[in-house]
Amino acid sequence: MIIPGRLSADPSTEESAVWISWYEEGLQDLVSEGIVKASDVDSFNIPLYFPSMAEVKSIINMEGSFEVIKEDVYEILYSDGLDAIPADTDKIWEKIINISRAVLEPLLISHFGNSIIEPLFSSTLPKIYAKKFFKEKYKSANLAISLKKK
Predict the structure, then answer these.
(1) Which of 48-62, 73-87, 129-143 is the least confident region?
(2) Which class for 22: exposed (0-12), middle (13-18), buried (19 or more C-beta within 10 A)?
(3) What are phi and psi of 37, to 5 degrees?
(4) Coiled-coil regions in this chain (predicted)?
(5) What is the pLDDT of residues 19-35, one digit of tens each?
(6) 10: burial class by Cβ within 10 Å (0-12, 13-18, 19+)?
């Protein structure tokens, strides 16, 4: 199995979820434009947790049905404050935003309604990604674990 995770044992680090803060910024932009109410943004929660490899292995061992055959943590360095921005950034944003949209759109619709979807994904988020993606250094991790049924 391959799951998003974090490198640090400390769950309070933002290393794996920096993009969530970008959604928060996008929602705040929609508040300033009058599309979303501030109280709705304040009450919105994205129920995601990015575990460390140690946490995943602990749960697998506690559950007891599987044996860990192989494990790998793949560090993903998304940006290193690049000086030169690639020419095809529109395509990069589209792919990245569509991946997160597949996960978050149902949550957003159930909390805010359909009216924010297009402004958020078509206008607000691409601007935020363009402003931050290549300018800030951040990383995340994917955890790969091969299991065998006991």
Answers:
(1) 73-87
(2) buried
(3) -85, 140
(4) none
(5) 778 888 899 999 999 99
(6) exposed
